[in-house]
Structures are given as C-alpha cells and as structure tokens.
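Quick start: what a row looks like.
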Amino acid sequence: MTNLPEPPKIYQDFVKRYPKLEQAWEQINEAGKEGNFDEKTIRLIKLGIAMGAMKQGSVTAGVRKALAIGITQEEIEQVIALTAGTLGMSSTVAVFSWVQEVFHDRQGA
C-alpha cells in the first residue's frame, strides 16, 4: 500500500490505549479490501460513504489519504457533486467545506 499520511495524534493516543481495538479495526479494513476494486476505487468509495454518513473526521481523513495516493482535487470534488442528489444542498455544502479545509491546509504546508 502507498504511504498514507500519519493519523492525528488523538487517534494514535486512542489506539495506544486500546491496541485490541486497533487490531480489530485493521482486520475489518483488510477484509473490506478483498475483491476486484483497485486502491483508487476503494478510496473513492470509502470517501463517498463517509460523505453520505456526514462523518467529518472520516471525510477529512479520507481526503488526506486520497491525495496521498494521487487522487486529484477534481476527482474528489466530483465525489462531492455526486452526493448532492442524495444529501441535499446544505449537507453537500457542509461536506464541501470540510474538503476545502483539507485542500487549504495542504496548500499551506
């Protein structure tokens, strides 16, 4: 797998405190990857699911991971546009704002 960005410190602190939960989480993630999808497709699907669930932390982490494997800003923004018909405009704009923060932070880095 590609080198993904380091998880936030709070996540690292949590899994240090609960290593069995981290192990279980890793097993769930690995099991979900079994099948015919490539890494890019998996990342975009997971990002769309996070957006649909309105999970801000998962969206921002998903965007950072997507960018790390070479998914473009335009591709990520297309996923946002695809959510509009399901989420409605106010939720889609919220998702857009979360994603833009990641883009902005990355440009400032």
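That is the whole record. Residues 9-108 form a domain with the AhpD-like fold (CATH 1.20.1290.10). Residues 17 and 32 are 25 Å apart (CA to CA).
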